[in-house]
Amino acid sequence: MSASPQIIESPKSIVNSPKSICKLDIGCGSNKAKDHIGMDAIAFEGVDVVHDLRETPWPFEDNSVEAANCSHVLEHLTNFNGKWERVRFWNELWRVMVPVEYNSAGAPVKGVARVVIPHWASNRYYGDPTHCEPMSEFAICYLDPEWRKNNAPHTDIKHNPNGYNCHWAVSYDYTLHQDLAGKNEAYLRWALTFSKEAAQDLLLTCACIKK
Questions:
Q1: Would you call the peptide bond into 57 cis, given omega within 30 degrees of 0 as the criterion?
Q2: b or e along 79-94 (b: 16 or more beta carbons within 10 Å of the residue's beta carbon)?
Q3: Cα(28)–Cα(30) distance, rounded to whole angstroms?
């Protein structure tokens, strides 16, 4: 589905409309991904839906998004001071996404969100005054309900009204500092574990799991 050029400012206009499946670019700014609906809090050129993602529910129905892109947005949300913005982001993204589907080769074709954030060990994270607390790779564990049940039940919606109610299967990778180009795999593993600035961005590929 191609993105509509119309700017929509009323969430109800989408929530109450017949369900249509789309691709969503969250916090797209003026660089919306091709063939995506662009959602941003500011009406930049190309934005289709003007909505602050910190306000829930988002203006999309359950199971109405087949693919999502979210680049350099999550670092602007915080869980501090009782806000729970990042938890709500993952819960709300899970709500609107369709369950993951795979092709015959085992590659996901629907129900996948790709999320990019500056890496916590890069100084790029700390320059922007609107960036909030860093997110590390360990935070991915909390997106799995079985892991939460066994290791951190206090973060699950069953025990915490502000907790996670989502289920994501997440793989991750990195964009690397340019000086690491051509280094062997063993050196890269060492650098990513122990060296500041080795990783520039954390790249998450998130499959939406629904039973």
A1: yes
A2: beeeebbbbbbbbbbb
A3: 6
Distance CA 125, CA 139 (A): 16
Res 19: pLDDT = 60
Q: Per the structure block, which two tokens stand in for 184?
A: 């062997």
Return d(Cα 171, Cα 190) in angstroms, integer.
19
Q: What are the structural domain ranges in the chain? A: 62-208
Question: Would you give per-residue pLDDT tens digits along the chain (211 residues)?
Answer: 334 434 444 444 444 444 679 999 999 999 999 999 999 999 999 999 999 999 999 999 999 999 999 999 999 999 999 999 999 999 999 999 999 999 999 889 999 999 999 999 999 999 999 999 999 999 999 999 999 999 999 999 999 999 999 999 999 999 999 999 999 999 999 999 999 999 999 999 999 999 8
Q: What's the pTM?
A: 0.89
Could you give the CA distance from residue 21 to residue 9 in angstroms, rounded to a whole number? Answer: 19
What's the gap between Cα 168 and its chain centre?
11
